[in-house]
Please model this.
Amino acid sequence: MEQQTRRHSGARMLVIGLDGATFRVMQPLLDAGKLPTLARLIARGTSGVLTSIIPPQTGPAWPSMFTGKNPGKHGIFHFEQYDIRSYACYGGVVTSRAIAGQTLFDLLSNHGRRVAAIRVPMTYPAWKINGIMASGFPASGLTSSYVYPPELQERIPPMRMIRFHGNTPEGMFQHLEHEIGVVTRVSCDLLDQEYWDLFMLVYQQPDHAHHYFWRYMDPECSLYTPEDAAKYGHLMGACYERIDAGIARILEHVDEDTPIFIISDHGAERTPNTHFLTNRWLRSLGLLAGKRTELSATHRLYERRHMIPKDLRIKLQRFTFMRLPAGIQKRVRSFMMNNDQYDWRRTQAYRFPVYEQMEGIAINLKGRQPEGIVEPGAAYERLREAIIQELRRLRIPGTEQPLVAEVYRREEVYSGPYTECAPDIIFRLAADYEGAAESGLEGDLFEPTPAIELERHNAWHDREGIFIAAGPGVQEGQRVVGARLLDVAPTVLHMLGLPVPRDMDGRVLTEVLTEVGEQRSGEATGVGVAVSGGLSQAEEEDIKERLRNLGYM
Model:
């Protein structure tokens, strides 16, 4: 092991994650002098946009960051398992046990380095590393599984379950403020107690603030009112200000010799005001067939669900997805996706929901789907190409502007053994448009986003995250262009003097560094995370509840 001078406490490298942070919100606050800590780091370092993965969602994005690999290699595309073989499209919730390949924390541990990973999303259950781990969102706190070693639960509390529905803006802000305080306090305490080769922590709260408070600061949101803006328009900025103050406290516990990265897994933007109904469009092309022209009585009743008082409706949903057997839950999920309306024996392609503005299309492939009809090989490829060309022809109503901003075959986005889990075609809609399930196959291709959806989430994600690096070895006062989330892990390894596994998709951000030095290549890391045992029913239900509260299920 290489020789190094170890301090009594602190960190050799500090990585701070701000989940969902975006310069769209930060830059006005920086210009107004309200984020002095981040402003100082930007002034004495390098900063710029950090491009996220597809889809730009917390579930797959953080594993991409700490493995340096795309979802086709690490195996996580969402908070739920992709299942293209099923018409329901999704399976059960995913956890750290689904991560294929070693993480940044494992690689450092293997080299005898001390690691602390605090509230990093998708690290539940926590696993054994050479250091400590306290799992981040959507970790359950029902058992000690959220920490390693287990006795840490006496010092590090689990994340509180966030409650969107029925909460007030003041109540939401108090929740976020409390959690910011916990992360800050725990991090300061741990930095005081030991010297860490890598200390990483994540503030989840920017993402939650965007989802809940965006309507109060963006006049383009259909729920915006000047009255609400006057009362609550400051809360999202106040969340960033609390985090900035927390980072200032943390920096007091490391010295000037510590390189610092501030990163986000994705950015944020206003929730679109218009739905594009992909299955209706596929039907208009003759690629999706319906069983009937009218909704069934059951579906008509389901479409009237908004007449039920919201509190009762939420309770019914919780009962359905927490108390019923898994098989019935899957059938209910399939029903909610309107799968009972389709004649699969005459359907060639159908919608595979990816994430808001990111949509997917699955080919009903013979031998893969239960009632697949499209022949593999040349027929499959011809159909994919035809659909892609039709997507490129789509226009925003009343304009000549493309409705589809990007469209890909899945192998153009992903590589690795899990690529085949993804939908066959992936595309991103233009700004202010998102995908949605339709109520009936007849009707317009476009519908206004229901107010109830906007109330629950005023903002979703985009791919433009943030990157700030400062400290020794980092260029001063520079802007970085072309940095990707996948590049963080290789750059951290390189800065810590360790080899970069050759199967990582990211690169060392040499343009950020004052001296590049020798870049060492290491062995591939195709070994799963070493944890044992499955989730209890109570743990899985707790995680699902946390995901539903944020609209991810």
About this structure: The longest strand covers residues 45-51. The domain at 20-270+460-549 is CATH 3.40.720.10 (Alkaline Phosphatase, subunit A). Confidence is low (pLDDT under 50) at residues 1-5. The chain has two domains: 20-270+460-549, 274-291+342-448.
